[in-house]
Amino acid sequence: MSEFYIPEDSENADDRQLLQFQPETMQDVIELYGDIKNEPVVATKDIIKAIETLKTLRGTMAYLEEQEKRLKDKIACHMLDKAQLITDDGEVIATWAMSSSSKRFNEKAFRAEHGELYQKYIEEREGNRRFLIK
Cα torsion at 23, 24, 27, 31 (round to 10°)? Predict the structure, then answer.
């Protein structure tokens, strides 16, 4: 649990109240503990169970995503070149249409043709924490 001194609604800056705050989300942790200490923390039984559950969920999600892909393939193969799938009553139950075309900047070609200009506008961005399950 983290401790923070929070000023009360008083104009006197010395009037402070100690509050306890337990982060509840990854974003809370990032905001409260910006710097990373390269040292381990011992997992509790509850956290070990959370890791095991997360691994199981990821396996289930991968299976479900594969099932989704197979079902979408089956439906698409039925629709062929048609844009709508309807019931006997004419109710539209699925559509498969082209999205609008878009324009994108070809960074690779620009870098090859205008290397110096490209380098002039390169900015380094701060990395972010990656959450990995081993």
Answer: -10
